[in-house]
Amino acid sequence: MAGIVKATPLTFVVHALAVVSAVMVLIWCIHYRGGLAWEATDKSLIFNIHPVLMLIGFIILGGEAIISYKSLPLKKDVKKIIHLVLHAIALILGIIGVWAAFKFHNESGILNLYSLHSWLGIGTISLYGIQWIYGFVVFFYPGGNTSIRSESLPWHVLFGIFVYALAIATAAIGFLEKLTFLQNGGLDKFGSEAFLVNFTAIATILFGAFVLLTVYAQKDQEEEDYAGSYSAI
Q1: What is the pLDDT of residues 171-201, one digit of tens each?
Q2: Global pTM?
Q3: Which helix (DSSP H) or strand (DSSP E) does residue 160 occupy?
Q4: Are 194 and 183 in contact (CB under 8 A)?
Q5: What is the domain partition of the chain in residue ranges?
Q6: Which end of the chain is more exposed for a tag (fewer CB within 10 A), N or C?
């Protein structure tokens, strides 16, 4: 059947890493950091929403959106919708996650946008939004003509890979930044929480790496399958 791409062992590794990363960030924020709350006297509970939504919502769902077009045994049109919707959900949850960080800072009397992580984060989610809007308009609705889609596809794919790699790097810097703050506040540098945060960051990086490896491994089949269709990223 035209438009069908088979799953590979790489996709199973990606899914496993997604589960591991999600479980670890939840254990960190709920067990070690006290839980999640949008309104709370303990403002750190508001901040906890940020890493959970950025990792599970923005990065994991974003990665699943990328590989969905490659691994799901469905027709192109169906995969296109799934891909588009997953990216939209990832973007929305990412925006809420960023909002949670601003809310935490504002209610705690902490300055905003002073760190490299925050600069990269705002830049990444802005580029992600631009990428989604461009893909929607050119490849979905109202849709460009065949020539525009053909010329845009390689750049759209390349830009998507860049933005996703930037998201992974930004997340890793965020884990480092938060752990450094906690350790400066007295957290044991060799304690279980510190190790958990570091392993969560490693799992996140590996997840992103295997998403990109999946893109590369199926590149040839992708180019043939995408003729006149929506991009995979």
Answers
A1: 999 999 999 999 999 999 999 999 999 999 9
A2: 0.89
A3: helix 146-184
A4: yes
A5: 9-225
A6: N
